[in-house]
Amino acid sequence: MKRRFIAAVLVSAMAVASLLCACSNPAEEAADVTMDMYDKEQQAQDALDSFNDAIQSNDEAADAIFNESRNTDGFSFTVNGVKVAPDMDTATFLSDLGEPLHYNEVQSCAFPGMSKIYTYTSFVITTYPQGDKDFVSNIELKDDTVTTEEGIYLSASKDKVLETYGDGYTEKDGVFIYEKGNDRLQFIFQNDELASIEYVTKVLDEE
Amino acid sequence: MDKKRKVKNIILSLLVVAALILILAALTRLFMPKYMGEVKEGALIGEYYDEEKDFDVVFVGDCEVYENFVPLVLWEEHGINSYIRGSAQQLIWQSYYLTEETLKYEKPDVVVFNVLSMKYNEPQKEAYNRMTIDGMRWSPSKVGAIKASMFESESFIEYVFPILRFHSRWNELEREDFRYFFGNEKVGDNGYYMQLGVVPVDYIPEPKILGTYEFGEASWEYLNKIKDICAENDVELVLIKAPSLYPEWYPEWDEQIVDFAEENDLKYVNFLECTDEIGLDFSTDTYDAGLHLNLSGAEKLTSYFGDYLAENCDLEDRRDEPELSALWENKKTAFYERKAELEEKFCEK
Asked: Which of A12, A23, A31 sits opposite B169 (nearest CB)?
């Protein structure tokens, strides 16, 4: 009787273990102790870690890894010869941009770490924390002295934007959204004139 | 098979099932986040169930309630017995289900809802959802909250058996997972989450242009549901907007809430319009540059709102009730112990 009981408990334990193993799937694997449990963020972090490691040894290799890691030719924005794109490690370009007009840190309601906001004259860069690094979550263009890589600037006509970027957009709540790789380029029009240009990472999305 | 053997087999089977359930329950408890480390806000929702549920005022909403209002101040100044059912980025459908659940336990005179969450018409982050939902006890309200909050990539079963979601933490378990295995420490004071730091406001980021300033359908649906369930239960609903300077509370949003309140004969207080009257000093009363108030700011705001509630909501001063007064004496002691502990940590930093 005692042996049967022990055997039964062992079987129960095995059943539990089987249950745990059987239910593994990629989404579940992403859970972690701080509830920072997003697969895509982790993938981006790994990729960007590789990118940053590579920077130290070889710039060309870094470029290659950067492009590969983003798994795309995503959107980017160049100002004063400095290229900025969603999910870039801010350590790789901030010093080249010079001092921002304003710098803010916004603590999340619930997560450790800070979102950082760098306000420059013509654009604003917001970051998200990942480990001890900060990555670009979005870039807003604030005036018409700066343009997108494709030459679009604030106050451009809606026709001009659609002509430049085509009709492959989705519209949600008045926002025209173009997607490329891990990035979104978002436009908002007021009276058919461009009122807002924003680059946004998709890495933080959840579906 | 004789009768005795049959009975033995049944008992054995029951023991096996019990052992299985016990092991599952223990593993679930071990693997689930305890919210006792750096991120404590996820523990707030569950604390309500240990309370004597006889509150006059219950707050529901996001961090703009649990960091900005101090129930102890309402008690000390007006004898109002209140509780905050707040959680990080609490979405409006979660506020509705928490209100529904609260009304099954008790009938407060007033429910206070902070309207910032009207800006979200769809779920935002699973992690935030979990911080509200996992703390709720099982009930039709919890089921409703899960269904309304889930992303397509999630499944309901993961909420029923959280171990399915969190088992992969097995190699990341920390000391807090074992230390708090048998129960969490209390992190809130009647739902208030105390912050003592001071980070003055020196710059407020320019608000973003939005594609639309209309609140979404789901937001309206659940605001109406909150209004209806309060009316059905003879509970007064008071809408508020906490005086957070950032993220932006757009005038277009405010206008919609003002109209809604007028149409439905509800009270609405936008504290952003009376920061001077409240006496808020954003160089000393915020711990994160204007997003939330610290204790000093929260005490001022609560004192102001207490006066408003006492004047406008027909609430009794209950300080002459011996049992409730004794309960609050204990709560007061716990509050000041927490404050002393935080001050000590703050000084060490």
From this structure: A31
